[in-house]
């Protein structure tokens, strides 16, 4: 009897444990739970902790509270100028109506399959009306805002309300097709080379202009300096002439002596200078007399029938 009682007690404990385990569930901080009974949604639990449900009848479906990411496959978009652009985008969203989400999307995996075409359609509708420079410019944020709005409008219609809020749609990568990229790079290179040539031409023109101005200014300055030098030289010559004239007027003999000394200095400066002059000449007057006066010369009578002898010439070296 005692062993039977223990067996029955053990069975009851196991059954009770199974009932307790089936009747309780735990919700984490990052989760929200939807209670489903025979396919019908009963309630939503958003408070973290331990909760209860009807065992074996009710089912718990957990959903994320956190922001979720959707990374669809890269899509080829035709731009307004008929260029083909490979766009790789991602979507950030969160579940705001768990019961509606369960009714329409059923699961997060199913939502991804249904949301990806909506995102691609929004990308085509917005990017298909602009050019590539617009996508690469500061207007890109406005385009992304418009795409996000279009996706939100598409997932929250009366016919297909997914119970989610799309927070942001961003482009990770936007590349032209390889053959188009090469053509674009070639055109960009040609444009940059043309700009560089234009800048070099402008620089050369400015160089020539500045050089011409500098040459003109240098010519003007040199001419002015030459004019001033001629004026100063003329004034100096005039002053020199005045001083010499004054000196000659005050002491003509000293002036004559000074001029003779200058003549000696200039004439006898070189070592190989040779003069053949009579010693009584004007040039050597200060060699014959300190005063520079010519020496008295008497007329000597030559003997009869004879000729007078010529005076020897002085050679200065």
Question: Could you please describe the fold and organization of this structure?
Answer:
- By secondary structure, this protein is an alpha+beta fold.
- It folds into four domains: 2-64, no CATH class; 68-176, Tetrahydropterin Synthase, Chain A (2-Layer Sandwich), CATH 3.30.479.30; 189-244; 251-285, no CATH class.
- 51% of the residues lie in helices and 21% in strands.
- The protein contains eight helices and eleven strands.
- The protein has helices at 2-23, 98-104, 108-127, 132-136, 140-155, 178-250, 252-267, 285-288, and strands spanning 24-27, 31-37, 40-45, 49-52, 58-64, 68-70, 75-78, 84-95, 164-176, 275-277, 314-316.
- Strands 6, 7, 8 and 9 form a four-stranded antiparallel sheet that branches. A three-stranded antiparallel sheet has the order 3-2-5, with helices on one face.
- Helix 3 (108-127) crosses helix 5 (140-155) and helix 6 crosses helix 7 (252-267).
- The N and C termini lie far apart (169 Å).
- Residues 287-317 are annotated as: Disordered.
- GO terms for molecular function: peptidase activity.
- Its main location: membrane.
- This is Protein HflC.
- Residues 22-188 form the Band domain.
């Amino acid at each position: 009897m005692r062993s039977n009682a223990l067996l029955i007690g053990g069975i009851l404990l196991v059954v009770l444990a199974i009932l307790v385990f089936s009747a309780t569930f735990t919700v984490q901080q990052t989760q929200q739970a939807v209670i489903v009974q025979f396919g019908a949604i009963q309630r939503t639990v958003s408070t973290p902790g331990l909760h209860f449900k009807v065992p074996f009848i009710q089912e718990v479906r957990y959903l994320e509270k956190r922001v979720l990411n959707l990374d669809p496959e890269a899509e080829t978009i035709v731009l307004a100028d008929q260029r083909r652009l490979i766009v790789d985008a991602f979507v950030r969203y969160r579940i705001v109506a768990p019961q509606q989400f369960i009714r329409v999307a059923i699961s997060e995996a199913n939502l991804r399959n249904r949301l990806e075409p909506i995102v691609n359609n929004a990308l085509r509708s917005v990017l298909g009306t602009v050019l590539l420079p617009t996508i690469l410019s500061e207007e890109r944020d406005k385009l992304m805002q418009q795409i996000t709005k279009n996706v939100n409008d598409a997932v929250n219609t009366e016919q297909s309300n997914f119970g989610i809020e799309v927070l942001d749609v961003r482009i990770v990568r936007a590349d032209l097709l390889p053959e188009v990229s090469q053509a674009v790079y070639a055109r960009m290179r040609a444009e940059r080379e043309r700009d560089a040539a234009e800048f070099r031409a402008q620089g050369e023109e400015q160089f020539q202009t500045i050089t011409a101005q500098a040459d003109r200014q240098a010519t003007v300055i040199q001419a002015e300096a030459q004019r001033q030098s001629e004026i100063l030289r003329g004034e100096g010559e005039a002053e020199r002439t005045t001083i010499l004239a004054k000196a000659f007027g005050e002491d003509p003999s000293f002036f004559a002596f000074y001029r003779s000394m200058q003549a000696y200095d200039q004439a006898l400066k070189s070592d190989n200078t040779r003069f053949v002059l009579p010693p009584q000449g004007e040039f050597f007057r200060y060699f014959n007399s300190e005063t520079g006066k010519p020496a008295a010369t008497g007329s000597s009578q030559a003997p009869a029938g004879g000729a007078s002898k010529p005076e020897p010439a002085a050679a200065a070296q």
